[in-house]
Amino acid sequence: KTRSIIRGVGGYLPEKIVTNAELAKTVDTSDEWIQERVGIKERHIAAEGEFTSDLAVAAAKKALEASGLTPDDIDLIIVATTTPDYTFPSVATLVQMKLGMHHGMAFDIQAVCSGFVYAVATADSYLKNGLGTRALVIGAETFSRLLDWTDRTTCVLFGDGAGAVIMERVELADDAPEQGVLATALRSDGHHWDKLYVDGGPSTTGTTGHVHMRGPEVFRHAVGKITDVVYATLEKTGYTVEDLDWFVPHQANKRIIEGAGAKLGLPPEKVVMTVALHANTSAASVPLALSAAVADGRIKQGDLVMLEAMGGGFTWGASLIRW
Ligand code: ACO
């Protein structure tokens, strides 16, 4: 059996922390409103001159260290991001350069908050098809740069950060314990594009634009779509919700995560939640949550882990991994 296993995980958060109380000094909001509606206490914000590729490289170095590998061992880099340093080249090629690599291939994936789950699925396919041996898969965002900091309905929700995993192709004997990515389901429906989008881009306005969101409509779609895609992923394997050791959802919002967990029938102690301290870091949120749960010893070898995300597009997806 050819499988893509996770060798190591790493996360990076910019130094600067902005609390709800600090935001309340500049927009008409309150710590109480933000915590009650979305469960966020604070977020990290990248410093001036600190770019998405810098966050990505910092997370990548930690994932490499955790794997006992060096950039020489990597031949595929995929970065999931909505906030690239430049319109082109890709952040992935900048990461390749900053890691001192000349070999291999590198490209970005744009699926907004679902980007990391899409990137894991893409790396899994590449590795299983012999297009690489070890992949560095990163979710990295400087989402703060897409925010209108006078719009209280969006600016309180997001933060910056990066997370990375190293995936490796292995051949498992038929009687070996299962390991690695077991199943994935990815979905999108572009008819929902204007429920959550940025009103700028090279081919429309020539500007970067700002995030616009119809929050209650996003909320309405989120729980159903998340649970559907989790069930679709489980169905491919024969496992059930009861078999899961950990649920690592996209960290958009405490109420969405709790709603999805309750609908799935998951005990809250199996749900990894980092949204309070990270806010919504878009494509970085799942690998950041993963790295937190691996670092503190919750996720360990042999655990059955469900990753899940949903975001602009809409895009959504899930990936079932035996750690
Ligand atoms: N502080 C204080 N008041 C606010 C704030 C704020 N930061 N933001 C909005 N309000 C006000 C609104 O102006 C409105 O006031 P009004 O009644 O006087 O008009 C009131 O709060 C209620 O606004 P709603 O938008 O109806 O509030 P709702 O209860 O739906 O909560 C929220 C808004 C938290 C955004 C909710 O819709 C939500 O969680 N949506 C999901 C959005 C999300 O998580 N997006 C992340 C990206 S998508 C993803 O990653 C899955």
Tags for this model:
323 residues, alpha/beta, Peroxisomal Thiolase, Chain A, domain 1, 5-stranded mixed β-sheet, 4-stranded mixed β-sheet, 13 strands, 31% helix, 26% strand, binds acetyl coenzyme *A
Describe the overall structure.
The protein has 323 residues and is of the alpha/beta class. It has 2 domains: 2-171, Peroxisomal Thiolase, Chain A, domain 1 (3-Layer(aba) Sandwich), CATH 3.40.47.10; 180-322, Thiolase/Chalcone synthase (Peroxisomal Thiolase, Chain A, domain 1). It contains 10 helices and 13 strands. The strands form 4 sheets. The chain has a 5-stranded mixed β-sheet, sandwiched between helices. The protein has a 4-stranded mixed β-sheet with strand order 8-13-12-11, with helices on both faces. The chain starts with a strand and ends with a strand. 52% of the residues are buried. The model has no long low-confidence stretch (mean pLDDT 97). Acetyl coenzyme *A is lined by residues 29, 33-34, 37-38, 113, 152-153, 156-157, 196, 213, 215-216, 218-219, 222, 250, 252-253, 256, 280, 310-311.
Work out the helix count.
Answer: 10
How would a crystallographer describe the biggest sheet?
5 strands, mixed
Gross morphology is globular
Number of DSSP strand runs: 13
N-to-C series of helices and strands: EEHHEHEHEHEHEEEEHEHHHEE
Present as ligands are: acetyl coenzyme *A
CATH topology of the largest domain: Peroxisomal Thiolase, Chain A, domain 1
Q: What count of domains describes the coordinates? A: 2
Give the % helix: 25-40%
Task: Bin the strand percentage.
Answer: 25-35%
In CATH terms, the superfamily of the largest domain is Thiolase/Chalcone synthase
Distance between the termini: 16 Å
Structural class determined from secondary elements = alpha/beta
C-alpha-based Rg, rounded: 18 Å
